[in-house]
Every structure is written in structure tokens, then in C-alpha cells.
Amino acid sequence: MLPKDPVMLLSYINTQLRDFYGSYEELCRELDLDGEKIAEQLEAIGYTYEKEINQFR
């Protein structure tokens, strides 16, 4: 279950990306997540996925 709070969600997603996944697409595929919905939630607080560094900033 993903955190509902957007800041906690950001922390969770970035930690997963740093520790376990080589890309956001891989994370979403492996965990069966709706990547577009998560990206929209994080964009609402000013964060977008940066592929080059594999994290939301």
C-alpha cells in the first residue's frame, strides 16, 4: 500500500528507485503501480521524474 500523503509518497518512490529499481518504468511494472497517477500526484507538489538521475525532483 502506497502512502497517501504526497510528501511521504515522494520519499517512498525515491527510496525504491535508489535502492531497488533502475527506472521509474521498472518500478511501476514490478510493483503493478499506475505510474501516470503517481506522477500526477507528485507533479501537484512540484516534482517530476528525471530519468538521468532516476528520481523525482
UniProtKB/TrEMBL annotation:
It comes from the Bacteria. It holds the Pfam family DUF4250. This is DUF4250 domain-containing protein.
